Amino acid sequence: MKERSQEPVLVVLQLSGGNDFMNTLIPYTSGDYYDARPTVAIPQEDVLPINDTLGFHPSAGPLKELYERNKMAIVQGIGYPNSNRSHFRAMDIWHTCEPHEVGTEGWVAKAVRELDPRSENVLTCVSLGKGLPRAVVSSGVPVTSVDNLEAYGVMTGIAEEERLEALEIFKHMYTPAVGAQAAMDYLGNTGLDVLKGTDMLKKAPAEYKSDVEYANNGIAKSLRDVARIHLADLGTRIFYTQHGGYDTHSRELLLHEQLMTELSGAVMDFYTDLEEHAAGDNVAILVFTEFGRRIRDNGSGTDHGSGGGAFIIGPRVKGGLYAEYPSVVPANWLNGEDLRHTIDFRGIYGTMLEQWMGVEAAPIVGGTFEQVHPFA
C-alpha cells in the first residue's frame, strides 16, 4: 500500500461578508458590550464560556469543543491599519496583502509558486466554490477550480462548463480592479489550466468512503470535497474554500445563528472525517474574514467595522487565545465606533506560511510582521 504523503497541507476557509467577531467570541461579562448592542447582544446565560470573560456563540458548540480539545487557536483583534470597509477592496487587501495599492498577485498563488515552481501539478492548489478568489490568482500559477466534485466523476462536460463559468466570473469581478488587459492575460496564460485537473480528480469521489454525515449546506459540501481530494492523495498542498452570508446588516440574530451552526458543524465534521481516516496530522485550517463589524448595533444588525478574528485549527495546533481581544470600553474605541486591531493579518499569513508550510513569508506578504506560535 502506498504511504500517504505527510507534506503539510493548508485549508483556507474564507467567511465572506465580514463575520461579527464580537458575537462569535463574546465578551459576555462586559457591560459595555450589552450597552452597545441592545438588539443583537447574545444573552449572558446563552453564551458558551471558555473563561471568565469570553465565550462562544451558542450555536458554535463544535468550535468550543475543538477549543477545549486544545485543537483551535483563536487569533483575536486581527486586522490592519486604516481598515477598509468596502467588501471588494477589503477582501482584495486580504487576498493580495496590498493595503495601499491594487495588487495583481494573490498571496496563496505566490505560495503555490514556491511550493511548485515548475507548475508540475495543477492540483497543488484547489479552489472549492464558484469563481476564482483573487488569493489564488497569479499569471503563470495554475489552479484547479471545483464547484461540484460529483460532476468530475460522472459528467465531465458539465464540469468543464463550470470551470469556464468560474473563469467568466473571474473576468467580470476583477476587470474593474486590475484592468481588462491584466484579467485577460491571466485567463490566457493561466486560466485554462483549471481544466487540466479534471481527469486527475475523477478518482477522488469514487474512492471516498466515510461514516461522517456532512450537513446539506454549501460549506459542508465544500469541506467534504476537500476531504475527498485530500484522502485521494493527489498532491494538493493548499485548498481554498468560502462560506458566504456574513454581511449581517439586518436580522443578524437569526442569520448569524444559522451561519455559526453551518460553519461549526462543517469544520467539526471535516476534522472528524480526517481523524477517522488517520489523515489529519498534516492538515491545518485557517478561518478568516475581511473585517469585523461595528461595535454598536444598528437596531437589526451591525455595519462594517474592524478588529475581527481568525481561527487556526488542526491536530498539531496548540489551542488557546492569541494576540489580544480589542477593548470594548467606549473610551478605547477606534474613531468612536470600532474595535482596534491588535495584530496584523499579514503576520497570521506569515505564521501559516513559515511555521506550517515552510515557505518564507516576507516576499509573499510584503514585509515582516508579528507572528503567533500556535503549532506544537
Fold blueprint:
Layout: E1 9-15, E2 25-26, H1 31-36, E3 48-49, E4 55-56, H2 61-68, E5 72-79, H3 87-96, H4 107-115, E6 125-128, E7 144-146, H5 149-154, H6 156-178, H7 180-189, H8 198-201, H9 203-207, H10 218-231, E8 238-243, H11 252-276, E9 283-289, E10 308-313, E11 320-322, E12 343-344, H12 345-357, H13 362-365
Parallel strand pairs: 1-8, 1-9, 5-11, 5-12, 6-7, 6-8
Antiparallel strand pairs: 2-4, 3-4, 5-10, 9-10
Helix pairs in contact: 2-11, 6-7, 10-11
Description:
The protein is of the alpha/beta class. It has a single domain, classed as Alkaline Phosphatase, subunit A. The chain contains 13 helices and twelve strands. The strands form two sheets. Strands 1, 5, 6, 7, 8, 9, 10, 11 and 12 form a nine-stranded mixed β-sheet that branches. A hairpin with a 5-residue loop joins strand 3 and strand 4. The longest helix has 25 residues. The chain is globular. About 2% of the residues have low confidence.
Keywords for this entry:
376 residues, alpha/beta, Alkaline Phosphatase, subunit A, 9-stranded mixed β-sheet, 12 strands
